[in-house]
Design goal:
The chain is of the alpha/beta class. The protein has one domain: Ribonuclease Z/Hydroxyacylglutathione hydrolase-like (Metallo-beta-lactamase, Chain A, 4-Layer Sandwich), CATH 3.60.15.10. The protein is built from 4 helices and 12 strands; from the N terminus they run ββββαββαβββββαβα. It has a 7-stranded mixed β-sheet with strand order 1-2-3-4-5-6-7. The protein has a 5-stranded mixed β-sheet with strand order 8-9-10-11-12, with no helix packed on it. A hairpin with a 4-residue loop joins β10 and β11. α3 packs antiparallel against α4. The N and C termini lie far apart (about 45 Å). The relative contact order is 0.15. Bound molecules: zinc ion. The site of zinc ion has 5 residues, from loops.
Length: about 220
């Protein structure tokens, strides 16, 4: 995982994952807390993040953008601190850990252990002293959340942005209406840069491309059925 400085206080750690996409972890160096966004494939994924934080005494807050394995497997490294997610995310990790862990164990980087979020929310959560807000933004996943840094105007959208430019609408694990509503939420947020779980950093223009692709998929489906 290689650190890339996106803005003054936003760092993205990235490594190749599939043939055409990466795995990204975010770090926001807030005024009162450091926020680690997703914990990747295990302790190995978060080791460079810990190294970057170094001896900074601010408490670390981990945020899971959703429950998929490649976003939560390093949670245990931070188990003494705050781990935040949507309420459904905690339920899904609890319910599915054993089955998904069996099927993905060969992809783990370092160690992974079941470690559930210890602070959950349903709609919104704010860390006002840090200028950080969390929003429920389902679409790719029912438990999808996004994190907005209002100081540097950076949005972390998890997998709610597609993994590559060719697939800019992600796999939809809810329904198209829910995905469209989340795009509407993103439009209301005043961001300059959007970091997602697997794609390159995007500008706000990504939303128009998503809407076009979503409308085209909708049309194809209606023509078929
Ligand atoms: Zn996902």
């Amino acid at each position: 995982m290689k650190p890339i400085k996106i803005t003054n206080r936003n760092i993205m750690f990235t490594e190749p994952m599939g043939e055409t996409y990466d795995l990204n972890i975010g770090l926001i160096l807030g005024a009162k807390h450091n926020f680690v966004i997703d914990t990747g494939r295990g302790s190995g994924s978060v080791a460079p993040v810990l190294e970057y934080i170094g001896d900074d005494p601010k408490p670390t807050v981990v945020i899971n953008t959703h429950s998929h394995w490649d976003h939560v497997c390093g949670n245990h490294v931070f188990e003494s601190g705050l781990i935040v997610s949507h309420t459904i995310c905690r339920e899904l990790i609890e319910k599915h850990w054993d089955e998904f862990f069996d099927s993905i164990s060969r992809h783990i980087d370092g160690e992974a252990r079941k470690c559930l979020p210890n602070l959950t929310f349903d709609s919104k959560l704010h860390f006002p002293e840090d200028g950080i807000s969390l929003y429920h933004t389902p679409g790719h996943a029912p438990d999808g959340i996004s994190i907005y840094d209002a100081v540097d105007r950076v949005l972390y959208a998890g997998d709610e942005i597609g993994d590559t430019d060719d697939e800019i609408v992600p796999h939809i694990g809810t329904d198209k209406e829910t995905m469209q509503r989340t795009i509407e939420i993103f439009k209301q947020i005043d961001f300059d840069i959007c970091i997602s779980g697997h794609n390159k950093p995007q500008t706000k223009a990504v939303l128009a491309r998503m809407e076009t692709a979503l409308a085209a998929a909708w049309k194809r489906q209606n023509e078929k059925g």
